[in-house]
Specification:
This protein has one domain (3-190): Nuclear Transport Factor 2, Chain: A (Roll), CATH 3.10.450. It contains 4 helices and 6 strands, in the order H-H-H-E-E-H-E-E-E-E. The protein has helices at residues 3-16, 28-53, 59-70, 94-102, and strands at residues 78-83, 86-93, 108-124, 130-144, 147-169, 172-190. The protein has a 4-stranded antiparallel beta sheet with strand order 3-4-5-6. A two-stranded antiparallel ribbon has the order 1-2. A hairpin with a 2-residue loop joins strand 1 (78-83) and strand 2 (86-93). Helix 1 packs antiparallel against helix 2, helix 2 runs antiparallel to helix 3 and helix 3 packs antiparallel against helix 4 (94-102). It is globular, with a radius of gyration of 18 Å.
Length: 191
Amino acid sequence: MHRQTFNFILAVCLLMGGQLYAQSDIGPDRKAAIDSLALEKVRDLSKYISIIGNKETPWSEASRVIDRATELFAEGSEIGVSSLYRKEILNFPVKKYFLRLAALNYDRVTIKWFKIQYISDLELQPDGRYVGVITIYQRFEGTSGDGLKYMDVTKKDITIYVERKQTQISGKLVDFWDVLLGDIRVKETTR
């Protein structure tokens, strides 16, 4: 089963909670299901970034994974990039970030995420969406033929959007909550 289809079915099953229509407020059971789905999407993104950055990944596979990773994000989202050699943090549109990652000038790139955790509860916004933040730490290593060329650890905050959507199941419109990733902002970069 396609991973996105599975995530969709999981979201519908978990978030319906015995009712067919989403409510204006998220109860504890739904919040737990939403938190789980958000963390799963962040873990999926971590895997996709590792595949895209891996120099042994064929371009056809990297391109397919770039498309899958891009689908995790809300439209207009950006990803921040930092360096120990530059004070300025650069922010790129999601797809451009992934294309740059695939084209990095290293023989080998290793990217690992760790300490993935919520740092803020979901808060209702005036537009009806809920917004939260997940923090991750990213270890980046770039090596060339002669050994380690660059390494850093970056703390990043990922904005999470939770919004109501509708789908048709057996001819009935069903409301459900979906999770999209937003901007990924660099908080600090260390050696």
